[in-house]
Amino acid sequence: MPARTWVPPGPFDLHRTLGVLQRGPGDPAFAVRGGELWRACRTPEGAGTLRLAARPAAGEIEAEAWGPGADWLLERLPDLLGEHDDPARLTARHRIVHEARRRHPGVRLARTGLVLESLIPSILEQKVTSDEAYRAWRLLLQRHGEPAPGPWERMRVMPDPRAWALIPSWEWHRAGVDAKRSSAILRAVRAARRMEEAARMDLADATRRLTAIPGIGPWTAAETLQRALGAPDAITVGDLHLPKIIGYALTGRRGTTDEQMLALLAPYEGQRHRAARLILLSGITPPRRAPRFPVGDIARL
């Protein structure tokens, strides 16, 4: 059970920095227990589980890891926790961005260095509610993942590419995943090596690499590369809610389109994803006028 510590270069919020890696409540690969964060993932060296705990009195983060991927996880701990991320590169152009950064100075952009880990759940989130996507991720990992190394038996590591490719059609259906999304995942895992190479590319090249796969568009690529690369400019386009939230927070107006959102975020070129994260942290959203979108369940069809 190798271990190490990491000293943040400045204010650091462990939970808000890594919380974006959790795919909903009950995520089998991510858990919070007693203030500690636990993450189970598939590294190039094999399955690994990482435990992280903030030690404010010592000014450090304590990390332990288990499994064949333990050393890989610990070697890349600084990248994961945003040591090379530079929040100061964003210059606040709006009061709401300034206030959000002042209130949340410890938020950094995590860089996992793992593409499929973020790509597959992002594909599952295409064109469905978050609850539907989280349920699918949970069921697929519980049925086809493997037990995570280490002391927490309920955690699961996602399947390797071959295991994803062997999931039968009725299991996708049982998890509520339609053929369009399952086919995109199968195409991605068949090109797993080329997908993972994107973790070592710049944002533009990585986006081209991912979107070369049919069924992976700009929305899915951005959602993936925000996590795999910690890319500060990977703004999500094509989202149902984000433009409306950004537009309302910055202008007070409803119905903002993607094009209008990009125009509003133009002063943050190079840091648009970071700016959007800060705006979301402000908690300012347009009041709801319509009932929540109903949750579908194709498994019952």
TrEMBL record:
Alphabetical list of InterPro entries matching this protein: Alkylbase_DNA_Glycosylase/TA (IPR051912), DNA_glycosylase (IPR011257), HhH-GPD_domain (IPR003265)
Catalytic reaction annotation: Hydrolysis of alkylated DNA, releasing 3-methyladenine, 3-methylguanine, 7-methylguanine and 7-methyladenine
Top-level enzyme category: hydrolase
Enzyme Commission no: 3.2.2.21
Transmembrane segments: none
Keywords for the protein's UniProt record, in alphabetical order: DNA damage, DNA repair
Protein name: DNA-3-methyladenine glycosylase II
